[in-house]
Design a protein that fits this description.
Layout: E1 13-14, H1 27-35, E2 44-50, H2 56-68, E3 73-79, H3 97-113, E4 116-119
Parallel strand pairs: 2-3, 3-4
Antiparallel strand pairs: 1-2
Helix pairs in contact: 2-3
């Protein structure tokens, strides 16, 4: 990835360490293994492909740097950027033909360097991918309410909940992918005389009530 970032970039390290029983291991071997741990004892990192944008020359350089710094493996994570200024252009579609070629290139380069490769099989944090059609994309649960004085029979349509501007809409302006989940009739709570209690705490300040005993 050949990216320029104006903000500080955080590298997330996933500690995948194996603890080995040290009994019977010579001290010299322990020192040697500490200085040059085996692959199973080295940490792995999330390797973020922002917007799926990749550059093979840069990929090789980064893998070689990770190897030189003692990293044992990478987990490819395709992530869509929160990028309102469109600084990072879009790369190939995740798991599309070009994306698969880049993943294959990564596996071959990592094998050459003795690194392990993992793959997060979804794009971004909401488990997206080209196989997810719009009607099955990330959804939200919205509600509206209508006050009704009964007893009565209600035949009026319920108001449409307020939806985000980015929600896909049809030609009529209504949401393109929406369905009713439930209609609930909830009685409004009513106060009953003689069923309320007022506490007066004195002097002013913070008080702790451990228990209350009510006598009728």
């Amino acid at each position: 990835m050949n990216l320029r970032c104006s903000s500080r970039v955080a590298i997330l390290i996933v500690a995948l360490l194996s603890l080995h029983h040290a009994a019977g291991v010579a001290r010299g071997d322990l020192v040697s293994m500490f200085r040059d741990p085996p692959l199973v004892a080295r940490p792995s990192v999330y390797w973020v492909w922002v917007n799926g944008l990749t550059d093979r020359q840069q990929m090789t350089r980064e893998l070689e740097e990770l190897k030189a710094k003692g990293i044992g493996g990478v987990y490819i994570f395709d992530v869509g950027a929160q990028d309102p200024q469109n600084i990072v252009p879009a790369g190939p579609a995740f798991m599309g033909p070009e994306s698969l070629k880049d993943i294959g290139y990564t596996v071959r380069e990592a094998t050459r360097l003795g690194l392990e490769v993992g793959l997060t099989t979804s794009s971004s944090w909401n488990c997206g991918g080209p196989w997810v059609t719009p009607e099955y994309a990330s959804m939200g649960l919205y509600h509206s309410q209508l006050d009704v004085k009964g007893p009565t029979r209600l035949a009026d349509p319920l108001p449409l909940p307020a939806l985000p501007k980015a929600a896909p809409r049809g030609p009529d302006g209504r949401p393109a992918y929406a369905r009713d989940v439930a209609v609930l009739a909830v009685p409004r709570p009513q106060r009953l005389s003689g069923h309320e209690f007022v506490f007066e705490l004195a002097p002013p300040g913070t008080h702790t009530i451990d228990r209350i005993v009510l006598y009728n």
